Amino acid sequence: MFSLTRYTTPCPEPVNSQIVQMVVDNLTDISSVALPPSNLLYNLYQYAIGFEVHLYLEALNGEKGIAVELIVATDDNDPEKVIGFLLYLPVKNDPEACGVAFMAVQAGRRRQGVGRAMMGEVLARYPHVELGCAVEKVAVFEAMGFQVLGARGTQVVMNTRDYGTDGLMGVLDVASIYGSLEVRQIHAYLLQKHGKRAMVDAEKQRDRHLDQLERKVRLFLG
Asked: Does domain 2-126+171-221 have CATH number 2.60.40?
């Protein structure tokens, strides 16, 4: 069994670190880039997505000027262990609406109702929810009451209603992460380790991968 806790203020550091680790461990599953571990850029994206989630967790203190809320699932047999989380952004000017930013469940605890329970907690407060997911996940969210609205790059946009909210949702500007010193250092290390040709090939593989994902979404939507 598991328990759910809702956070609207900063959560304990052990919870934060487990959430970020879950993001890093599940990059392919949780990110719209969905880069496979075989790509040499994988470690770079692990850092960037992990840091992005870290910034959203920091934003729970209200100092970044955006609304952030969090549902955390913990193991009843080990209450200190995080087995899932759902980070979502309430919409300004629309008290019924929010957008799901990140959601993950530990690999060993999937298909046990954790994700459905977390989403149920969100829907109880915000019945108008929007999210983006891979084509393969559409059926999962349809079973939770979502419907397909359209496409956003590599993801299918889904909503609990047949329209999006007119309100404004605050999001962090994460572009600066990819230009940060840390990312440049990771890239320099990978370049030194693998060589320029291999890194150029990795970038081309990434671009082809993203094109394929976008094409898959377009074909799915018909």
From this structure: no
